[in-house]
Write a structure and sequence with these properties.
This protein is an alpha+beta fold. The protein has two helices and five strands. The longest helix has 19 residues. The protein starts with 6 loop residues before the first strand and ends with a helix.
Length: 99
């Protein structure tokens, strides 16, 4: 019995990649009705959420910051601004703030 070579396949349903898995392309595979297995080996765009129209197209989702992240960022900028007003330079501020 030969060694099975597993390759990366995208599960495409209605033109959208709904899953990605390793498969040898031959072993029986129970896929839901309407799912087509498309070889995506070596294609960085063969990701869940990509579209497929003969080629994979993937745009990473934009992640909006939370209210807490926005508040933290604004507080940090305010603190840096106040430290600069006191005459501290960027290196001194970085040593105080850890970055």
């Amino acid at each position: 019995m030969g060694v099975q070579v597993m390759k990366r396949y995208a599960h495409v349903e209605n033109g959208v990649v709904t899953n990605v898995s390793n498969w040898d392309g031959e072993a029986p595979l129970n896929t839901p009705a309407g799912v087509t297995m498309v070889l995506g080996e070596g294609d960085p765009n063969a990701e869940i959420g990509a579209t497929y129209d003969g080629a994979f197209h993937y745009t990473p989702p934009t992640i909006e910051p939370t209210a807490e992240e926005i508040e933290y960022r604004e507080a940090r900028l305010s603190a840096v601004s106040k430290l600069k007003a006191l005459g501290l330079n960027d290196a001194e501020i970085a040593s105080i703030s850890g970055g």
